[in-house]
Amino acid sequence: MPGTKTKSGGKRTGSGRSSFKPSDEQRELVSQLVAFGMRHADVCRFIKTSHGKPISEPTLRKYFGTELDNGLMLSNVKVAQTLYKKATAGDTASMIFWLKTRADWRDAPQRVELTGNGGGPIQNVNMTAAQFEKIARTIADEV
Predict the structure, then answer these.
(1) pLDDT tens across 5-20, in order?
(2) What is the pTM of this model?
(3) What domain count does the chain have?
(4) pLDDT for 17-55, tens place per residue?
(5) In whole angstroms, what is the distance from residue 141 CA to residue 59 CA?
(6) Which of 30, 25, 31 is nearest to 76 (CA)?
(7) Are 40 and 59 in contact (CB under 8 A)?
(8) Which domain holds residue 93?
(9) Residue 64 maps to a domain
(10) 90 located within any domain
């Protein structure tokens, strides 16, 4: 009889939902998806129960905590290894990036100098909004 209680008051042995058991392939997939920056809700859609349904976020956290914690870190390690190899092999862009981010190198500050007509000083003109509108209309009429 389905749902019949046992002598101790609980449901019969074997009744209810079966416990989720993650496979090694699912663990690797979760680790990769997290490394790629996917949200936990989206990762759940890729992991299926034995009945073919996506797992819930609490189930994801319960069974894949290590993968969730380490997935992004592992991908950062791989990228850092590749960057390091390229930088030490002489790739100029990789060397510059490494030195700027890891060795506190900085570009010289850029200086912008503004000048007026013919290299002279900039002329500052104060005018009211009405004066500006009059000049703008004159220019628009000429075009």
Answers:
(1) 555 555 666 666 668 9
(2) 0.53
(3) 1
(4) 668 999 999 999 999 999 999 999 999 999 999 889 999
(5) 71
(6) 31
(7) no
(8) 24-102
(9) yes
(10) yes
